[in-house]
Design brief:
Number of helices: 12
Order of helices and strands: EHEHHEHEHEHHEHEHHEHEEEEH
Shape: globular
Largest sheet: 8 strands, mixed
Structural class: alpha/beta
Helix content: 25-40%
Strand content: 15-25%
Number of strands: 12
Length: 308
């Protein structure tokens, strides 16, 4: 598929499930492409996630299908749709009703099936939006908690918490995951916002890289224009590519001490952290290496798609 001037030793590879609300904004597509181009990752499934708190033009109940369609578009533009045609799964159409009732979906079943396989390669699942399908999988099959690690882009700044889009999608699901025993690496809003880029940068480094590079850039510009009437976001000439932080932390894994272990908090309906409810530790990142993230992405995109 994608060939580089080096080989990742098999014992260094990891199994990966990518969960993405791929049509929510204009950064999700960048993150999906980045994961797929990374040879350390053995991508076993791509799960389309809902973004029902921001249905935009899609209408209630349809956002997950918009994400699924966008996943297939990215795969097609990268020329790898045949390889992944049986690895794309549809998640729940909306958030959980409470913390006890799972939503059975293709996405939740994908997580369960892969977690229960016997394989020497460790399993990670990365979540760039809601946690609905992970929480449902945990409730449907609690045994998976001992067989995988979850990485989540979401949640407010510590210690207080507060408004954050990915958490807003399903607060019940976040509480299920935080209360579980599943190893969890959290990248909260103040950290994923560290991956900032300019549109000029993307026009020079991304747009020239084949059909996928052209699409990534142009759909971001289009989204930027569509949201031009919002005074506080986006900023007009820059963007955050925070979803790609899941690539960064898995490339580094244990190399840097840019995280803290803290007792998992509970989360209120106002999205505030409630401490002292749980003693199980989760890994919470306080910094991300933006240089590593973006230069790795640019290099892989240029290597695979830019014509000399």
């Amino acid at each position: 598929m994608f060939e580089y001037d080096f080989k990742v030793p098999d014992k260094k590879k990891i199994r990966l499930i990518v969960h993405t609300d791929c049509k929510n904004e204009a950064d999700d597509q960048f993150a999906l492409a980045h994961h797929l181009m990374t040879p350390k990752f053995m991508v076993k499934g791509i799960v389309a996630g809902h973004f029902e708190k921001n249905p935009q033009e899609y209408g209630p109940g349809n956002t997950v299908y918009a994400s699924r369609d966008e996943i297939f578009k990215v795969l097609s533009l990268m020329g790898i749709e045949d390889e992944y045609k049986d690895k794309v799964f549809t998640g729940a159409t909306g958030p959980m009703a409470d913390e006890n009732t799972p939503i059975d979906s293709e996405g939740a079943r994908c997580i369960i099936e892969e977690a229960m396989k016997e394989d020497e390669h460790p399993l990670f699942a990365v979540f760039q939006g809601c946690l609905t399908d992970l929480a449902s999988a945990i409730l449907l099959k609690p045994e998976i908690c001992d067989r995988m690690t979850a990485v989540w882009i979401g949640g407010g700044k510590y210690p207080g918490g507060g408004q954050e889009f990915n958490l807003l999608q399903d607060i019940h699901a976040a509480n299920v995951v935080f209360k579980s025993t599943m190893p969890l690496w959290q990248i909260p809003i103040n950290v994923y916002k560290q991956i900032a880029v300019s549109l000029t940068e993307l026009s020079r480094r991304v747009k020239p890289c084949g059909e996928i590079g052209k699409y990534l850039f142009e759909q971001m510009v289009a989204f930027n224009d569509k949201c031009g009437d919002i005074t506080f976001w986006p900023h007009g000439e820059s963007w955050g590519l925070g979803d790609q932080g899941t690539v960064t932390v898995l490339l580094e894994e244990r190399e840097r001490m840019n995280y803290d272990w803290i007792p998992a908090p509970a989360i209120s309906k106002e999205m505030m952290y409630i401490h002292g409810q749980n003693n199980r530790p989760i890994r919470v990142y306080h910094t991300l290496d933006a240089r590593l993230t973006m230069e790795d992405f640019y290099a892989k995109l240029e290597h695979n798609f830019k014509k000399d």
